């Protein structure tokens, strides 16, 4: 026992010895008094510490310092982090560790001191925490003095502002603007001295709308503090709101005190810590999520701090609750450089439509955090509303059995409310319909922002044919049978519910209107599936009757019994048999020649059978003859049939061909055309003079000489033709043996009918005739209206009688003239100035070409007062 007691005593003695060594001596702790010069960034600074030697003898010391940034999570470089020194017994000394801080925030100094006494090293450590600030000087600084009443004023004494009191006065001294939004917390420190009685009042306030010109006396001031009566000399600390334009006012209101108050402003600073780890978070309070959509709760993060946040620094979580219980929790992190924006998208797995409550929480390390509540409306479909919402001036009937309504105001409805939520004047209600469709109301003060369907079972069925109102209150699509072939009717069914659904289909129609229908009787649709159903409709061979017949598809959702009727009207296009063309090769023939032609008929409607085509001739004497009879067994939609015919008239005069198209005994369509038959033997021969006085003969001979000279000189077909027409009686007398040359006139007529537009030169060279002979026969043909002629410049052109053609078919080669003729064709009666404007050319140029075209008989000019209008010249 004595041995154990001795050991315990020795151990206690050792511990006491160590405690005496380590505990502070009479001069204090070994590491004592860690003080810094100031608390501002970007200025040289010092940490001053006092080291006391606790040992009974000279001791060697080795000091190491480390400055750690809480925000950066890394050390700040120090110019002299290590010191070596020796202290005598009980000696103390001060040591400075220089440093400089560049970012405001929280920092820690860590000191490690190694002491070597009697070759027995020992180590002790100590730390201090400091906050360093950004610094803005307010006083001294620019100021503005506003005197409201009386004669009190502020005066500047060096860098100190001093109040000069005066009875019944009110005066303010204003500094700013100051941007206090750059700090996470802005602190205003005012060093001042004042003496204040109850007959005066001193206050410090701020404003965000002060303007020395426009709002000098009307700015809104918010009080920061009111100074208490008495005397004070020191600093007052006040918190400033975060704002980009902050003005500080030192206001004095003085009554009639017995002792004048005093107030001296020595200096004032605004200090704060710039946010290093701060995010601006924005996301909608109400999120609409669609079934099976990749969209979710979108969160936008902006890094408004100074430092880049690496992956893992930011942690974001979304907890989703359904009926008060958490059903899922989602976490994300991201890399976000300073000054940039990134998106997070939380896509929760939800099973039922409804209103879900969410809790969003975002943290940046342990330096910043934010939590906020939001809601999810999980739905398959939204009701389309105006961008700025819908004011319920009139009641709104919804197509949903259950719906989530986001609104403002006092909403009225005829349904049952299952759940609700409200915040900042906005509300969400989960409503279900009763026996009547869900209807919303409440007047113009109620504004609906969003409506989402919460139906578990919901589908849409539509016809892909255009739907229209067929009769008042009854809509449907029209199916028209045109070609006689099958028609395809396409229906579309969309499952907008949250379950797989089975649908049955029934078809209702009149059998006499439809020969056959092919279509499915049942379909199965997965969630969010769309299916197109093609029905094949086979029409009757012939149009059953005029008008239409109803055709209805009844679609039933078997899980709920809900039905939708898709109405249609079946119609047949009426047969439209047309005589498209009755054409023959000539408008005038000689007796003995034949007229050949063709007839074209077509059907633009439903196929038709058992038609007959009859071709009748009504001769010039009024007699009527059936030239052709052609049965048409069947004519499809869009089909055309051609029939050729030929006829040789035996009676002189105007004949009419008529086509009659019949269905049974009913005339369906007809068309007629005319041609002229001519007998050359009937052409009137000019009577030859039996005898002429010698003087007349001599005169005629002189005229012949003059005109012949003109002919050879001018080389003009028009002059030749008219000259010989003038001298036909004389020429006939001289050439009587050629007057009855009927074969010649017949050859001329056949050539002109086959070559409309032939001129005199062509005819002369073709048949080897002299000019006089040719003019003689041409004149007889034209005089009997077998042919007609037209002047074209120097030429005379000949056409069959009754020939119709446009004058611009003449040889017009000039591009400008072609464009002018095209303008006249489009706008008959157009003026030259209008053509000049449309073609972008001068009126002089247009007038030049119009004159040339008039000479060519390509157009005619009609005067209307002082206005000349232009028309194309047609041959008739």
UniProtKB/TrEMBL annotation:
Classification via Gene3D superfamilies: Winged helix-like DNA-binding domain superfamily/Winged helix DNA-binding domain (1.10.10.10)
Annotated Pfam families: HTH_24
Name the record gives this protein: HTH marR-type domain-containing protein
Database matches in SUPFAM superfamilies: Winged helix' DNA-binding domain (SSF46785)
